[in-house]
Structure prediction request, 314 residues.
Amino acid sequence: MEYCKSWLLIAFLLISSQRSWSQISVPSSGKIFRHENFPSAFITSRHIDVWLPHDYAIGKKRYPVLYMHDGQMLFDSTHTWNHQEWGMDETAGKLIKEKKIKPFIIVGIWNGGETRHADYFPQKPFEQLSDSSRAMIYSAIRQNGSDVFRGKQIVSDRYLKFLVTELKPFIDKTYHTKSDQKNTFVAGSSMGGLISLYALCEYPEIFGGAACLSTHWPGIFTMENNPIPETFFKYIEQYLPAPDSHRIYFDCGTETLDALYPPLQKKVDSIVVKKGYTKKNFKSLIFTGTDHSEQSWKSRMNIPLVFLFGKNND
Prediction:
């Protein structure tokens, strides 16, 4: 009965938040609530999906939070463009029930569709490039011939302002969270991996750790005369936060788009280690034979979740 009352109270609080919300498809564990077209003064509005663990109860305890990019790909493959998903509810729910990790909340931030690349491309490294390099990047095309940036200007600093000054305060007010830095994490894959690391570097007082899967270090879709990785490396050398209060997870595969990543990731790893990170707060893995897809990330997501939320990580 107390469990049912808790979920009814959650529903009441969500209604009183004056945001359009709805409970979406029933996950394998916990509950998912959607805040539709969440407004922002900085970026385009987008849906926010919030997954609550099975033991979530108002007033009983507070929960760490994982903010994840590409939120529409996290829970339900029946509505995704490629019919794949991360399976975050299954993986997180299983690990929690097995007591391998602490219960936590997932906030899935939908990408902006045509604005995705512009939202996620780290802005400060981009601004350090020459005018000619910036023009080259903006004119980049995908392998299918489509425009990478779709005519949009890079606005990742605005995206992070949305995350930190608009979304996080709303989540902390609406849900029973642990809002401090050591209980606030960010994660994503590909361009979502880039923006996750950028968030950690730009707001080290907000985020205590990041999980970056198949991080898209090339930034565009060719390595020929590509200045992007080097400018990212220089940025990391300057802005990577202190290892005594942060955790960083990287991984990548070796097939399809991921085939570009291993040599670049090794350079990043060397920078991270030079900055003082150790096995206690840094992990970087290569999964031979895996490709650039939600199925691949789903198959190994248990590793970064244990790394971030394992019970020995206090």
